[in-house]
Design goal:
12 strands, single chain, alpha/beta, eight-stranded mixed sheet, 2 domains, globular, Rossmann fold
């Protein structure tokens, strides 16, 4: 049986809000049982750093580590013996592309910082070579989105990765989807052998049939994700977070 590549976001997708106790037991039960029949590499694509992801995986007693991780939505690492090993060629190129991007558009980023800093509910923070934004309420999230979209309107090479109140800037060629496609090339697996699940706006670039023919999202997903998965004939789980992902996997790949 051909291997199946399983790619999941982490926060909101496997781990629910204010998660306590063991992580996504139904998901890991499906994974353990299914791996008796076929090879199933697991990718976690997250906005977290590796250090942050490793800590929370251990904290929530993940029974296994993923084989691959996409960190800060654009860097790729292979996990061996519990440690992440940078995919040097990809990550080196990624760093150079972003250094050039942020250098060319420094004035634009300064404009963004100046305009959003006037909003007392928005905090400007350092983030992967440039600035990031954290909005404190839904109203400030909406205001920040409007300001940033206006400033970047004619600059398509800069994209904004959004996850709840967090805003991150990146080159439009680097996102969870492009990283997943590179992992697929390494493993010689195509979209017909790939399952993808996510719940938030920064998952939208990978929740596409060009990357995976089996798309899913938990019931706690934001409306844009629910709509995207629905329009591509993916599976909308009736349950939240990890329970919903296990439900989705059993829908596509029953254990019996």
């Amino acid at each position: 049986m051909k291997p199946l590549l399983v790619c999941t976001d982490f926060d909101g997708t496997l781990a629910g809000e204010n998660h306590v106790g063991p992580l996504a037991p139904d998901f890991f039960d499906w994974l353990e049982q299914s791996r008796k029949k076929r090879s199933i590499p697991w990718v976690v694509a997250t906005g977290r750093s590796w250090e942050s992801l490793r800590e929370v995986l251990r904290q929530h007693q993940s029974p296994v580590m993923p084989e691959w991780i996409v960190t800060v939505e654009r860097e790729i690492h292979q996990v061996k013996m519990g440690e992440a090993h940078s995919l040097e060629e990809w990550n080196r190129t990624c760093a150079k592309v972003h250094e050039s991007l942020f250098g060319r558009h420094g004035a634009i980023l300064e404009q963004i910082q100046k305009e959003v800093a006037s909003d007392e509910e928005v905090t400007v923070v350092p983030d992967v070579g440039t600035i990031g934004l954290i909005a404190g309420s839904q109203a400030s999230i909406d205001r920040t989105h409007q300001k940033v979209s206006r400033i970047l309107k004619d600059r398509p090479e800069i994209t904004t990765m959004r996850n709840g109140p967090y805003f991150r800037f990146a080159h439009s060629n680097y996102h969870k989807g492009s990283c997943l496609a590179h992992i697929q090339r390494i493993l010689d697996l195509g979209p017909e052998s790939t399952f993808i699940a996510g719940d938030n706006l920064n998952d939208l670039p990978m929740l596409r049939r060009k990357f995976g023919h089996y798309l899913a999202c938990p019931s706690n997903s934001v409306p844009e994700v629910l709509q995207t998965v629905r329009e591509q004939d993916g599976y909308l789980a009736s349950t939240e977070a990890g329970t919903g992902i296990a439900e989705s996997l059993r829908h596509f790949f029953p254990l019996s």
